[in-house]
Amino acid sequence: MTQETGSFAALGLSSPILHAITKAGYEEPSPIQAQAIPIIMAGHDMIGQAQTGTGKTAAFALPILSKIDPQRREPQVLVLAPTRELALQVAEAFETFASQMPSVSVVAVYGGAPMGLQLRALRQGAQVIVATPGRLVDHLSRNGDLLSSVGYLVLDEADEMLKLGFMDDLELIFQALPAERQSVLFSATLPHSIRAIAEQHLREPQHVKIASKTQTVSRIEQACIMVHADQKANVVLRVLEVEDFDALIAFVRTKQETLDLTSALQARGYKAAALNGDIAQNHREQVIESLKDGRLDIVIATDVAARGLDVPRITHVLNVDMPYDPESYVHRIGRTGRAGREGKALLLVTPRERRMLSVVERVIGQKIDQVQLPDAAAVLQARISKLQADLTPRMQAPNGQHKSLLERLTTTLDCHPEDLALALLGKLTEGMAFDVSGIEREYPVQEVTARPERNRSFERGERVERPERGSRERREHRGSPAMLVDQQNRVRCRTALGTRDGVAARNLLGAILNEGGLARDAIGRIQIRETFSLVELPEEGLERLLGKLKDTRVGGKPLKLRRYRE
Ligand code: AMP
pTM of the prediction? Predict the structure, then answer.
């Protein structure tokens, strides 16, 4: 075992799990992991107040996998997640962490996918079930004993589950679970409804929360960019082209990412090096010295490896991955703005990490401005400016040798100096596009669309409205082009379920999101009446969507959604 997993080892995790952590490249437990793992290992129920980005999945998956009996081929762990996206993500994390436990298998159970495969995996004795509540209830209606061997229950993003109307499903699931079990609940917020669930279904739970003291950050300009998780490398490459930096430190979460990003940057000609916990002390010092004296311009580091790093040349901190907690954000960005200089910190935020961003903002007591990701035109402009900056001094002090070389070449090649200039430009800018569409192809990225603030509206009542004007104004204020949210083609669909059937907007929303596999912002207004309800759905792909929803039930009754013709 490497030295860095030492602090994981101190948490009492099993040896296959420690191996898997080493393989995943984790260097040390995040704060929520350091607190939660010993509690879960000791067999206590627990309430964790944490959002995506804090490392909460590993906080419950690592100790639970350490405790199960891999030889028992029956469900032992149930994780409930609000959406199929999260269920898949959690299932994938369990698979990674169980990579050294060959007899452990994981099944993701979610709506909108055929029941058959899921049933087969269950029959074959998967020990870990990661499920969305609606589809799990369907399985329970076929096999009421499905959960009778479960000893560990996790409710992940419990507040989101309630917002999506899964309360009744949760109750059915609780009834199907053995009373003798260990239960863990994770939630970003703890409203009354969540506390009530905990009181009823958890036994003397211990609370875990990342304590956050207010921190002050001065002299550092901060901004964030919304990005899709799988496009971060391209966003980094664009940012590096448009930012005017002297030296830059980029933070990622794992050793592997330090290596991957470093290679991507070196391939583009950047003087970059990786700094992670595997790098020997003498080499680490070399890297820091090189960064200090300009032999290196970029260091890609994990939090552990960058501790104590003090290089006055650093003008920029680029948070490629979100820090686990606000304190480490403050530590990271403190690597710039040294010795009273100005510094700039950029944070990449994926859609799932928006909440973490709000937590960081709350703790540092200031808003982090959202800026648009650099578009191809900005990259092009930066390339041209750099080229000009390189050429101008040479044109001001022409070299006599070059002048005679030019004459010679134009004579021997029998060409005009302009032809030669073009050929030289081609050589100088080899592999680099100098037009917008070429740059789009070189670093493809998609803008993250602004999230409609739906949650807030449906917490207030049953009508789910999109605050389109508000979000549009906000975007325009930030200088980004207005997006076509309100021009999306949606059509109204009708179901015969209404308030009479005990159906609320959040029930419809939860069912359609999970069974239909739609993104949240694809769904428009939901109107609930006594004997029917109307839902705005995207016109594109509507027939396929309605097909997927054909067997969906809400509150035990068939949804039967149809295109509404007025
Ligand atoms: P989560 O908050 O569970 O969604 O985790 C966010 C991300 O952090 C995931 O990509 C994890 O793989 C990663 N992660 C979690 N714990 C650690 C750790 N101790 N070291 C490095 N990466 C981690």
Answer: 0.64
